[in-house]
């Protein structure tokens, strides 16, 4: 490992010294399918690549029970299995991986300086942002209190806890129904709670719920409160049409009411759309010339594994051609 020192002008217009731990041809922030594909593509072109991830490889793929829409993989492969294949490929690629959280990015003299929670700074001419999405909260009493005590946002992350339990899935879109599907082999009972009168997921998911006796649905209901003692024991619901209150007993709840982009530390550097997603051109370049964005964090119509991977490959190719 070699060290570089840059004398740069800080935001307060005074001279300061950044102690750079290491410089790379490319820094990729986030190890979901978009970030992984970008890192591998750049490495295959002979670039030195740093991949920074704060949690685990695969991003939200790990939360998917079964992958249905990724061409070329075995039908019925689980998200966890696909992630293991991705990890193997990354380890064989020669990419430097750092387990840390990025807290700030500075752009100075055509260099990108990436600052992490562990007080380390890395530099590169370019960076690819692949930080993905975070789950939205319900914002109701008991949600924060019982987080980790029955309240979850990713079913697969807490899968063993859900074994032989009655689980409420809050939400009715594809992601919510996929979470339910991933638990149906171990849960005693699954209750789908959704504010609309009809589920919005793909037909195969909805048909499975309709004919599987393990499921019940509470459609047209809002969740008003999560309650319990040491652990969660139930939900307070209100019927959308009448406002009537109802309590249901559950051992756990998985909240699947949407996602928001993780742009908190970078949003000020580039142009975002009205929902906070990053706007890019067709090469994935943002309004900031040295920063690219791929995967779910990018403003686009479809967010799937295949589209994230496509974004990553395009971005790595575009950056390589600029060297």
Plain-language structure description:
Helix 4 (203-211) links the parallel strand 13 (189-194) and strand 14 (215-219). The longest helix has 18 residues, at 305-322. It is built from 5 helices and 20 strands. It has 2 domains: 4-134 and 259-322, 3-Layer(bba) Sandwich (FAD/NAD(P)-binding domain); 151-255, 3-Layer(bba) Sandwich (FAD/NAD(P)-binding domain). It is α/β, with parallel strands linked by helices and 323 residues long. Helix 1 (33-44) runs parallel beside helix 5 and helix 3 (174-183) crosses helix 4 (203-211). The protein has a 5-stranded mixed β-sheet, with no helix packed on it. A 5-stranded parallel β-sheet has the order 5-4-3-9-20, with helices on one face. It has helices at 33-44, 79-91, 174-183, 203-211, 305-322, and strands spanning 4-9, 15-23, 26-29, 49-53, 96-99, 102-108, 111-116, 121-124, 127-129, 133-135, 151-152, 166-170, 189-194, 215-219, 221-228, 232-239, 245-249, 252-255, 259-261, 291-293.
Descriptors:
alpha/beta; 323 residues; FAD/NAD(P)-binding domain; 5-stranded mixed beta sheet; 5-stranded parallel beta sheet; 2 domains; disordered N terminus; elongated
């Amino acid at each position: 490992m070699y060290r570089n020192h840059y004398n740069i002008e800080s935001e307060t217009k005074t001279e300061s010294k950044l102690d750079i731990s290491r410089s790379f041809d490319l820094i990729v922030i986030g190890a979901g399918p978009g970030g992984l594909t970008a890192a591998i593509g750049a490495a295959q072109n002979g670039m030195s690549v740093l991949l920074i991830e704060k949690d685990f490889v695969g991003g939200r793929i790990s939360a998917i029970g079964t992958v249905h829409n990724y061409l070329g993989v075995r039908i019925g492969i689980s998200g966890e299995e696909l992630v293991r294949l991705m990890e193997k490929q990354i380890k064989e690629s020669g990419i430097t991986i750092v387990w840390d959280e990025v807290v700030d990015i500075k752009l100075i003299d055509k260099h990108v300086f990436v600052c992490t929670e562990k007080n380390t700074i890395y530099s590169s001419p370019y960076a690819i942002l692949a930080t993905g999405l975070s789950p939205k909260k319900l914002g109701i009493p008991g949600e924060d209190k019982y987080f980790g005590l029955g309240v979850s946002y990713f079913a697969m992350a807490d899968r063993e806890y859900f074994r032989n339990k009655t689980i409420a899935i809050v939400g009715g879109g594809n992601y919510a129904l996929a979470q339910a599907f991933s638990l149906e082999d171990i849960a005693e009972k699954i209750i789908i709670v959704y504010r609309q009168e009809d589920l919005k997921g793909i037909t195969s998911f909805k048909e499975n719920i309709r004919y599987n006796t393990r499921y019940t649905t509470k459609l047209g209901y809002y969740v008003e409160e999560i309650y319990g003692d040491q652990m969660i024991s139930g939900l307070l619901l209100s019927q959308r049409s009448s406002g009537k209150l109802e309590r249901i007993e559950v051992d756990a709840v998985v909240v699947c009411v949407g996602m928001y982009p993780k742009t908190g530390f970078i949003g000020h550097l580039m142009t975002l759309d009205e929902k906070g997603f990053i706007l890019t051109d067709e090469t994935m370049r943002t309004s900031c010339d040295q920063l690219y964005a791929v995967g779910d964090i990018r403003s686009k119509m479809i967010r799937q594994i295949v589209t994230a991977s496509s974004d990553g490959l395009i971005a790595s190719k575009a950056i390589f051609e600029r060297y």
